[in-house]
UniProtKB/TrEMBL annotation:
Pfam families: HMA_2 (PF19991)
Record's protein name: Metal ABC transporter ATPase
Length: 109
């Protein structure tokens, strides 16, 4: 039961962290997280920039984008050596890339 409580707390922390960027956690189970943003539909520059960066991470096994729905599925190694701090670091990276691309697009208008 404690594991489920920890997962719920972690999920809330992730949602709060990402919500400032209009990024939503759609689904989370250890080893798999699906996130979405209205900015990621179609051929998003954010996704074009983000996917290669995430794929370079050692413990991330795959990253898949669904352009029709604006979702990103991240599958990662769910062994105990991947701690919540590592996952949070990945999503801080998502925030940073998301914000940087949007800032560049807005300043070029």
């Amino acid at each position: 039961m404690l594991s489920k409580v920890k997962q719920a707390i972690f999920m809330r922390r992730l949602e709060k962290m990402l919500s400032n960027y209009q990024i939503n956690v759609m689904h989370y189970i250890p080893g798999r997280i699906r996130i979405s943003s209205p900015y990621w539909t179609g051929n998003s520059k954010i996704i074009e920039t983000l996917m290669p960066i995430l794929k370079m991470e050692d413990k991330i096994l795959s990253v898949r984008h669904t352009p029709e729905t604006g979702t990103l599925l991240v599958e990662y190694d769910a062994t105990p050596d991947v701690q919540s701090a590592q996952i949070e670091a990945w999503f801080e990276l998502v925030q940073k890339v998301h914000n940087n691309v949007i800032t560049k697009e807005v300043t070029h208008l």
